[in-house]
Amino acid sequence: TWIEDNIISFGTQGEHGIYISGNSQRVHVARNVIYRTGTPAVASCRAMQIKGASNILVKDNYFHGSWDSYGIVTTTLTNSNIVIDGNFFNMSNTAATKVIALGGSSQDDGIIVSNNYIIGGIYGIWCQSKNTIINGNYIQGTGQRGIELDGTTYDVPGVTVSNNMLYNCVEGLRYQSADANYNIDGNTINGGA
């Protein structure tokens, strides 16, 4: 399935820009513009939600505006082999709680988040997924952490965070849980705590 070259626009109504679920496989989401012009009237709005899917490519999309909860979230059901690459996120730092949120149940496996440009949000990238690569992203001006690895609730082994640039985030990088076996190297953190 190809979801390409669309303009998806919301005012204050609407919940999700793109919703991929139900054991979806081999979905290519590219060159879409997804934006919201007003404060959402619906709680837990997401520009994109991926739920129970595999072999998904999210590439070269533009996300903008006031999303209540997430820019992109992989959630609830097991997701695997997801690539989120080369997207541009322009969020206010009070809009998206987590610009890119991976997991929430630690059942997600094999996610790659690379070469994305993130401005704003509360968290730039929040990870609770195993065997995940977070590489080469530029994250600027988050309200809290640029990247957070959260292994407090679930064991999330095999997470690699490398060659990311975090600029002027309130906090740069935070990782939790000594048992998580994170590999963190080559990142640049400028400004923030």
What does this structure look like?
The protein contains no helices and 23 strands. It has strands spanning 2-4, 7-10, 16-21, 25-30, 33-36, 46-51, 54-59, 62-65, 70-74, 80-85, 88-91, 98-103, 109-114, 117-119, 123-128, 133-135, 138-140, 145-150, 160-162, 165-167, 171-176, 183-185, 188-190. The strands form 3 sheets. An 8-stranded parallel sheet has the order 1-4-7-10-13-16-19-22, with no helix packed on it. The protein has an 8-stranded parallel sheet with strand order 2-5-8-11-14-17-20-23, with no helix packed on it.
Strand content is over 45%
Q: Radius of gyration, Cα only, in angstroms?
A: 15 Å
Approximate shape: globular
Number of strand elements:
23
Low-confidence stretches: none
Q: Helicity level, as a percent range?
A: under 10%
Count of helical regions: 0
Summarize the biggest pleated sheet: 8 strands, parallel
Derived structural class: mainly beta
Strand arrangement within the widest β-sheet reads: 1-4-7-10-13-16-19-22
SSE order, one letter for each helix or strand: EEEEEEEEEEEEEEEEEEEEEEE
**Mean pLDDT across all residues, rounded?**
86
Distance between the termini: 43 Å
Quick summary:
The chain has no helices and 23 strands. With 193 residues, the chain is mainly β.
SSE diagram, text form:
Elements lengths: L1 E3 L2 E4 L5 E6 L3 E6 L2 E4 L9 E6 L2 E6 L2 E4 L4 E5 L5 E6 L2 E4 L6 E6 L5 E6 L2 E3 L3 E6 L4 E3 L2 E3 L4 E6 L9 E3 L2 E3 L3 E6 L6 E3 L2 E3 L3
Parallel strand pairs: 1-4, 2-5, 3-6, 4-7, 5-8, 6-9, 7-10, 8-11, 9-12, 10-13, 11-14, 12-15, 13-16, 14-17, 15-18, 16-19, 17-20, 18-21, 19-22, 20-23
